[in-house]
């Protein structure tokens, strides 16, 4: 894909995986955008929203989103669950980070937390209003073809292993 220099607007050439340079020798580094994503647990079940926008409209999605400037990943995780599904959660652990391409090849790094439901009534909004959110039993988590994003398969494996060893 052609990238244009963010300083002068000329087309750039890719020099490295994450570096594009224009004729004026401006460096344009392309780094992943950081997202905070949450497995919300309650009574042995995990909460999923249903996406209402493309890509992957109608598929199950964990609550989460991009971290804002000046915000910690932890704060973003809690904020996104509240914004998308209306509930308050308490973070109980960090699962791991998973890289992905978002939409049109925009790279992302997904920082994944595990949280416990704390309070509030579930109200889906934002890009999660494609259907009623659902609680899925830890023993019958969604198959990959039900899920919105490819990187979930790796995270879900780690999550199942986390749950086996923590019994949360
Ligand atoms: Zn330039």
CATH class of the largest domain reads Alpha Beta
How many structural units, i.e. domains? 2
Report the bound ligands by name, code or SMILES: zinc ion
Give me the CATH architecture of the largest domain, please.
Alpha-Beta Complex
Q: Count the DSSP helices.
A: 2
Describe this protein's structure.
With 168 residues, this protein is an alpha+beta fold. It has two domains: 1-30, no CATH class; 33-166, Nucleoside Triphosphate Pyrophosphohydrolase. 17% of the residues lie in helices and 39% in strands. It is built from two helices and ten strands, in the order βββββββαβββα. Strands 4, 5, 6, 7, 8, 9 and 10 form a seven-stranded mixed sheet that branches. The protein has a three-stranded antiparallel sheet with strand order 1-2-3, with no helix packed on it. A hairpin with a 2-residue loop joins strand 1 and strand 2. The termini are far apart. Bound molecules: zinc ion. Residues 5, 7-8, 10, 22, 24, 26 line the site of zinc ion (ZN).
Tell me the layout of helices and strands:
Blueprint: E1 12-16, E2 19-22, E3 27-29, E4 33-42, E5 45-50, E6 60-61, E7 64-66, H1 73-85, E8 88-102, E9 106-119, E10 134-137, H2 152-166
Parallel strand pairs: 4-9
Antiparallel strand pairs: 1-2, 2-3, 4-5, 4-7, 5-6, 5-10, 8-9
Bound molecules: zinc ion.
Labels describing this entry:
seven-stranded mixed beta sheet; alpha+beta; 168 residues; elongated; Nucleoside Triphosphate Pyrophosphohydrolase
Give a short summary of the structure:
With 168 residues, the chain is α+β, with helices and mostly antiparallel strands. Helix content is 17%, strand content 39%.
């Amino acid at each position: 894909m052609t990238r244009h220099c963010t300083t002068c607007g000329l087309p750039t050439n890719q020099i490295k995986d994450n570096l594009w340079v224009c004729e004026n020798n401006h460096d344009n580094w392309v780094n992943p955008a950081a997202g905070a994503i949450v497995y919300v647990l309650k009574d042995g079940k995990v909460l999923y929203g249903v996406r209402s926008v493309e890509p992957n409209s109608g598929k199950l999605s964990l609550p989460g989103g991009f971290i804002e400037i000046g915000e910690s990943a932890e704060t973003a995780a809690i904020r996104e669950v509240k914004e998308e599904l209306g509930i308050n959660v308490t973070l109980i652990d960090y699962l791991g980070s998973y890289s992905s391409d978002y939409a049109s090849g925009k790279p992302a790094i997904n920082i994944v937390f595990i949280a416990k439901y704390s309070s509030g009534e579930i109200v889906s909004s934002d890009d999660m209003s494609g259907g009623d959110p659902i609680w899925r039993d830890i023993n019958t988590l969604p198959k990959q073809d039900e899920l919105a994003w490819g990187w979930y398969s790796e995270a879900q494996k780690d999550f199942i292993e986390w749950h086996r060893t923590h019994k949360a």
